[in-house]
Structures are given as C-alpha cells and as structure tokens.
Queue: 3 jobs
Job 1
Amino acid sequence: MLRSKFGLIPDRDVKLLPTGEPYLGLQALERGIVDGAAMSIPHLFIARKAGFKELVSFDKLGVEYPYTIVVVLRQTAAKSPDLVERVIKCIVEGIHIFKTDKSKSLAALRLYMKGADEGILEESYQHTRGTIDDAPYPSLQVVKAGLEMLSLQYPQAKQTDASLIIEPAFMKRIEESGFVRALDKR
C-alpha cells in the first residue's frame, strides 16, 4: 500500500514497527517511540483530541484496509451452511440494532471504550453508523489489499486469487430472503 499509493518503500523510506493493539500505537506516539501510526476508530478521535494531526485518511484515498473481517473454514461452510447463515444473520441484526438504537449502542461503546468521554463516544458512533453496511457483503478489494500486504512478508500471497477467498452467496441468500428489509419493520 505504501509503495502503490505513496511511492514509499518500506525499510528504505520508512521503518514500519508493529505496535500490536491499536491503543499501543497511540501510546507509542505519545511517548515519542514512533513518529506516526495508523489509527482506526476510536483511537483516531482520541489522538486528534490529544493534539495529534491526521496526515492522511485511508478512507478518503479509497484505500480498502482489512481490519474487520469474519472468516470461516471452507469445510465448516460446506458442512454447516445453516450455522454460517445464522451467524451472519446475528451480525446483520447487530448492525441493525447499532444503527437504530443509539442509546443501546452508546451503552455498548461505553462498556468497551472505558474512560472515553462522551464526545469520543458520539463521534465513534456517528462514524461507524455512517460507514457500516446493512448487508455486509465480503469485499474483493479488501481481500486483495490484505494479500498485497501479506505479499511483503510472504511473496506467494501474490499468486493467490482473491475471488477464491470470499463467499458472497451466504449474504446474498440472506438479503434475497427479505431478512434485512424485515428488520426495518420491527
């Protein structure tokens, strides 16, 4: 991604240092261990509040970044398609609740974002609500981006056909059944 979008070559132009959990990247910035860090929500909002400046938005650049993906083994999907479908329906229903019940959603965010002030919680809710799809189909672009990242460490990842990794049929079946639309009628 650095090479294709910015013309930067890792380990020559920039040193990439994995920091682990997202909050550790923010701590590394605060302590001066790193000069920059990739941030996801809510850590981006917390960093802004602490006075750090956003240099680039992957979203605005159209960079698909694989940070929230649900995966299943092929044999599980083949052996238990009803289980896979039920799990996806739970995810879809959770998305619906998140988008339509703000007080419940903020209570959940409050629980998992201990110590975040109300402004950060609200900003996180609004951002997430605006970006999450009602019917979360797997993204071919996200898988391609993930394979590109992996190829830096594992060159054989370049040989992988991304279309063999995603399976949109489950979500398509759920959407065509009317399940997603029916949630709005509740």
Job 2
Amino acid sequence: MIDIRKSELEGHLSRNLKGFASPKVNLEQYATPPPLIATIIHQAAMMGDISGKTVVDLCAGTGGFAIAAAMTNAKRVFAVEIDEDAITILKQNRDIFEVSLEIIKEDAREWSPNIPIDTTIMNPPFGIQQKKMRDTEFVRKAFEYSNVIYAVVDGVKRNIDHYAKLTKKHGWELTGYFAEEFTLKKTYKFHSRNKKKIPILVVRLEKSPKEN
C-alpha cells in the first residue's frame, strides 16, 4: 500500500534533500533530480517492489532513492556508498527526513549482503568521464543478490538491446524501460552551460523464474 502520493514525495525531496557539497568527477557524482527519484520510486511501488520489501540504494550518493523508498513503506533500506563526504550528507538527509536507513561505506561493486534483497535501485556512474567504473558493472553485481533491479543507465539507444542481452545471459529479464532526460546543472569546471539535458534510460530488470 502506498501512503504518499508521487507529487508529495517529489515536493518533500525538492524542498529538503541535500545534494553533493563538492562533487567528485572521478566518481561521476551528479545529483539525481527529485522528479526522477519520485517517478522511479512511485513506479516501483506500483509494481509492488517497495512497500514491505528490503530495498538497496546502490551508489547511494546523498541518499535520494533510499530516503524515498523509506518514505514509501519499505520494510528495510540499505544505502551503499563509497565516498565519505557523500555519506556525511546522506546522514544529514536521513536525519532531516527522519527515516530509518542502514548506511554502508563500501564499493558497490564489492558489497555482498548477508540477507536476501528484494529490490535494488541505482543511478551508477555511466563511465563517460572515467573508464574505471561503468553502469554495467554495478548491475552485474546486483544480479548476485537481488530479485528486481531498477537502474538509471546511459540513454544511448543501443543500451536497450544491450540490457536485453545482458539480462538473458545472466538468467534475468528486461521487463520494462522508459526514456527520460536528465537535467544536469553545471557541476564541474568543464561544463560550459548552466544546464544541460542528457538522455537516460530507466530499466526494470527481474530475475527469471526457475525452470521446473
């Protein structure tokens, strides 16, 4: 059951969620816009993937997805983030929103939970500004312990086919996706415009039922 409307969730996040104080380009730190967070969490809740579930916000940053999931009646929420500065703000956001989160400082590509995870939500580095971390790596890791994954990935058209093939290879299914534009505010010195819209894909991936 969803007790908070999408518009209410977006409003709370827009007014109160703190972003990165000093974003790090080597980690491709960009604040996920509250409207996008609210859209993904609302759709996940409508699919039955949030309320009463154990949810992970992978590459959590300052915790937008984790907080939104907690506000949408998730049973238990983990926020996994490698950067200490981001975690400091994440903790502030947790206190501002007065939600229960379990914050874990670890590389999301290496973290393995010791309990089953129902739903993993992530906006990982795409691998555009650096080549050491790519969105696919984080998705592959989440395959190991999740039942459902929502991921914000690079919006190039070939990624639809790429994720369809990747999921099938690992015994998963691409069950849905939608294209969106991510409004990126000027964050780094090399950004020449105050705002730029970049194409993204939001994919929903689900573990395939085991064959009888």
Job 3
Amino acid sequence: MKDLIVAGRYAKALFEIARLTHEDEEIAAELEALSAALKGTPAIEKTLAHPSLKTAEKRELLGRIFQEKRRPFYATLLDFFTVLFRKNRFVLIHEITASFRRIADEAKGQGTAEIRTAAPLDPALETAMVSRLEKIAGARIAAKKALDPALLGGVVIKIKNKIIDGSVKTRIENLRKELVKKRTV
C-alpha cells in the first residue's frame, strides 16, 4: 500500500511537468510502452532496478533506448528516471505508469474500467454496461476487456479504486463460506 502511495506521488509530479509542456499523452504512451517492454524482458528491468549499477550507467542505457526516437519529451523522461534511480524507486515503474495514466485520464474527464468476463460480451450489453459505468463515474469511460474463464460466469469490473464483483466464482465461494459457517454453529 505504501508503494502505491509513493508511486502516486511520483506519477503526479511527472504529470504536472508533462501538463506544463502539453506532453502528457505522449509521456503516458511512452511510459506504457516502457512498462510493457520491461514486463516482457525482466532481465533489463532487474538490471535497471539493481542498486549496484551506477545511476549514470542506468541513464545511459535508457538514453540509448530513447535515442532511436529522438523526441523532445525524452529529456524530461530521462531526468525523471534519473530521480527514480537515485531514490531506488525504479522498481515502482509499473505502478507509476498506472497512476500516471489514471491521473491523465481524470484530468481529461475520462476514466478506464477493466471488465473481466468468462465469455465475450454481447456488444449491446457492453455498450449498456459502459453507459451505466459512465453515469456512476461521472466521466467518459474507456473499457478494457479481458477474458477470464476462471470466473465461471458473470463479470468483475474495476473502476478507479473500486471493484464490482458479480462473478459466479465469487458467489460460489461466498455460498461455501456461509455453509461452512452455519455448519460450525
């Protein structure tokens, strides 16, 4: 929990800088791309997070990665990553990325809902669900859909910091707990 709070603070600081230069969307996209790349190659992530590697060497490594693209906001990102390296907080890059996206979306009056279902949703049902979520959130909602057969049926929705769990799996688990509870009484 503490790491999420710290990640949120770093994300907010980066967002404030990005917003001043009107590069918040570009930086969000680059953070997401870097986070995905690091998840795909854990060895590089481990190297960048390792405390024995000097900050200058880590910065140079990322600089080489960004050098290929040469965009103006890369200097901001490299400076931000340097702060993370110095404070040994680069291990929070995925949490910072998620927090940054959430902050950027909120600033634009948008939100994201993660919708997990056991089977693909009917388009009409998905539209109705997103419409209802927009009313609840008071913002436009972009749906990120995922299939999760382990749910058995129903839906699990994560929006902002709330989880709405209407899955068959959870209902069965709750019923099991009730039965065990009544049996022991």
